[in-house]
Give the backbone structure.
Amino acid sequence: VQLVESGGALVQAGGSLRLSCRTSGFSYEHYAVGWFRQAPGKERELVAVITRGGSTNYADSVKGRFTISRDNAKNTVYLQMGSLKPEDTAVYYCTADIYWGRGTQVTVSS
């Protein structure tokens, strides 16, 4: 089983990024998939989740700025991030069932 995140980068405040989480080795389409993030010195927090039916939920801090989506044909979940703020700086992880990726670093400069 693998979940591999990609797309993290250094970006200026106000910019956009799209993160990808490519899955393999399990029937990911049967599970909700979530994006979490962890900033230095802080606990890991939920950013967004998408159910197997496509329903979505977001942390208040990212509502209206981030969009989670999934492409079951590609076994991939995306996190489109816009209007980025320095406080969005963190390592972003995707998770499904009991599985986690290793994360991708997003750094937003002011």
Q: What stands out?
A: The chain has no helices and eleven strands. The mean pLDDT is 96.
